């Protein structure tokens, strides 16, 4: 890419070739490829040479850089010839950790001479456990004198490391690896990065930087865990100050004159990322507004009105409200771009169908793209059932109250696929439902007026755009998700879309109770779960049993005696209990003597052929199976109102949103539902906390916030969903709400008066984000 500004030309230079091959490889493992990556790899914390690190949160396997004081150091020979051992103990003032070195006598005596009791140093290595104590074997280290100057270490040329300790007395501790300790990273930044940016021209407009209220950013960081709270900085010290230039920001982050400057430098680098995302979203909105679209107004007579009259129930207030919002948006001469988020079971598909029928009434076609063939087939069956006689005929005329619904998937036989393609190309099919097969070049549409993308998080930005580009005029776009999206996530990932929300659950839906079953503390509860499944079958009700994987070990698996025995087993290096696979669980449950041997038990997973999957799902939906053992292929869209129980094996292997989706498969009719979450995780684990949160509420919006707090936005969004998130190094939607909002205001204002991004710095910021996202997409293969 040809950069417009000197700043981005400088920063885009690669580090490979300027450092050794092993160092370049180690940097790449940290996501550092360019000078820009290197300079944006900022310290995770700052310390003074008089401070100590805290040992309270260490875990075995952690790669650490710790500023500690030596309290014990002993050197003595080992039983091996000419080999000596140095053992020592370090402290943070409260807790201790051991260190051990092995080597020839003269090496050990040298280390012993440097690591006398009372000496303070920075020690880096991997935390292990020996005789029930934390230990680092052969840590890299440097030591400081009483004035805080580097005076020794395990590396040669220690004098080159003196710049590690800034003149301010602050020490930056970087995210590091075993092959690349914090001081080696700092050395690379000092020798490669900082000299290149001393005279770096400012790429962003002065008006954009001046619009940021630094005091508000500091106040947001005054909450527990924030920078200002951690370092006891009064936000008012920033009164009258603004964000620094980019060159100042890099210098202040890596060699801060004081903590206040370090904060400002970091805020500027985070703002760059937030502004690039928000400018990208604002520019997408501008481009969408310029695209011509065919208005598709609601008609008083036609298939949509006939469908509304045929409904045997009243729409919820939310469905009415969102339906009007969509109808109004589709009267415009530019394309609607709307994200519809709603609770599991809130009736999103019905809202989408009404919009699709409005398009059919206007002589157009509507497409619904689903992530899996199972879900696409379910949608086709449900929509045909809902339309009834309205789907019996064909035609795309405003006065025709019939249309055809077709299903297009990759597994269709050639002859059947040809027939479907002809109906789509001719316009005979008004509603086309399918998977990624809808994106194939051979699929030609007569008049594509609306694209509905179900489960938006399963598709990338590029995929939804590719389908929208298939029409002569840009079709209206409706993307749906049953995974509620926290506000800050929506701002950074769906800022190019308007957002509509459905919270109400239609009347008649039953309550669902959720219970966490600790298999180690209460192993007999698992037996009771299988009994409950059998009782439900005898009462004429059906059950889903969900597994995290297809394959697995033979069942039943041996269980530890109790929680303490299992914890000791893991501490001694024993393997955790293997998860139950769908195939072995199905075989055991339905085998002779198995707990469900007398029931009709089906199996469904992704490796089955499409025909077998369809046949199994149809049998379960028809009531010909009592129990369905499945993987997450039944996560979304599957609608079996008679299913009243769900048992999720190894529930800790799923995320909150995925479990919430799975749970939405039961309680879809008038029968009360029961969801049992089987787990072997300890009560104080993060995984168990997810399950406990799920057992307390069915509010998907509340669970989304818990999910975001636990898993961080990288996991919640996923690179494919946002199209950009994986390119961001510092921006965190939980921590930087205020900054994201200010960046959004600044980006909206700037793009309004510079809609073509003629300012080179803004254009480069947007292009860099897209380039990095594309590069990472290609790397993922």
UniProtKB/TrEMBL annotation:
Swiss-Prot/TrEMBL keywords: ATP-binding, DNA damage, DNA repair, DNA-binding, Helicase, Hydrolase, Nucleotide-binding
GO biological process, any: DNA repair
Helicase C-terminal domain residues: 525-709
Keyword DNA repair in annotation: yes
One Pfam family, short name: DEAD
Domain Helicase ATP-binding: 329-502
GO molecular function: ATP binding; DNA binding; DNA helicase activity; hydrolase activity
UniProt cross-references to SUPFAM superfamilies, sorted A to Z: Nucleic acid-binding proteins (SSF50249), P-loop containing nucleoside triphosphate hydrolases (SSF52540)
Protein origin, superkingdom: Bacteria
SMART domains the record matches: DEXDc, HELICc
InterPro entries: DEAD/DEAH_box_helicase_dom, Helicase_ATP-bd, Helicase_C-like, NA-bd_OB-fold, P-loop_NTPase, RecG/Mfd, RecG_dom3_C, RecG_wedge
Keyword S-adenosyl-L-methionine: no
Protein's recorded name: Probable DNA 3'-5' helicase RecG
Taxonomic placement: Bacteria, Bacillati, Actinomycetota, Actinomycetes, Propionibacteriales
